[in-house]
Amino acid sequence: MKTATPATPARSSARESARPLRPGMSEAELKLLQALIYEECGMFFDERRAHFLEDRLQRRLKAKGIATFYQYYRLLTSAPGREELTELVESLTINETSFFRNKPQLELFQKTVLDELLRRRHGERDYTMRIWSAGCSTGQEPFTLAMLMCDALSYYQLRYPHPAREIAGRTLVPPPWKLALVASDISYGALRAAQEAAYSDQQMEGVDCMYRLRYFDRDNGRFLVKKALRELVHFDFHNLKSEYLPQNNDVIFCRNVMIYFDEPEQKRLVEKLFRCLKPGGYLFIGHAETLYGVSNRFRMLHEKHGTAYQRLEVTS
User: What is the pLDDT of residues 7-43, one digit of tens each?
Assistant: First the structure.
């Protein structure tokens, strides 16, 4: 769950070609590196964000002891440069996230979307639920979703008891329900922090006392996610540019990710997310993002300032 200045489609103009570059970097070098990054992960840096890109490139040149941008490009496109390309992509992402971010959207998720899905699954006698947090950063989003899911399942079980719960006793996910929560990111550093599942007082500001008591342990000045909750979330590396993405999801959270992409790449991404959802599944994107003009394969839900998109099914 990352934020950055929104990208806009590229426009060629005299003003853009005359844009001043940092000393030692030519327009041709910039375009080579822009194209390489776009091909690797779909991130697009227009003229407004080019200086951010140049700044990150300068840092990587200094770290590697490389004199010119073209030499750096040659390294990135060589077989030994694969690891450095990963480092560069990580440096271009901004891992800004928090627990319970965008509460109106999370209320819509818990009170409307989950309630509808649980009723549907119950009616089908299918007690599995699969959620994907795409762009999970350091883990606050998937752990938030796991807490909300556990609460929703417990409440649902109170209203509609199942004999399996009495046999199994108290668990975070009451039987016969099974929860699979996949969390992915393009940053290995962010994933390592997410798997550690340890958060500072400042990072816990959005978590109220009840959630802290039920789902966290206090240790050496940090809050540790309890083992039972931690085991519900599977962290994995995924590049959204790839076609090999988690499938058969009931819900996908892909918030503040599309803002890295230009319009063609946004359309390709949303089409992939559509295919990754089960029929009637739901997609949550960032509050500053929209599917308007990007895809007509979803219907929008809007309640109390919270927005989600449900996959539309073609009827013959």
Answer: 443 443 334 443 444 456 788 988 899 999 999 888 8
Q: Is the pLDDT of residue 182 over 90?
A: yes
Predicted TM-score of the model (pTM): 0.83
The pLDDT tens digits of the residues spanning 108-129 come to 999 999 999 999 999 999 999 9
Contact criterion met (CB below 8 Å) for 46 and 8: yes
Which residues does 191 contact at the CB level (< 8 Å), separation at least 6? 136, 185, 235, 236, 237
- In whole angstroms, what separates CA 136 from the centre of its chain? 4
| Phi, psi (degrees; rounded to nearest 5) at 222 | -125, 160
Q: What does the pLDDT read at residue 164?
A: 64
Name the phi and psi angles at 179, rounded to 5: -115, 125
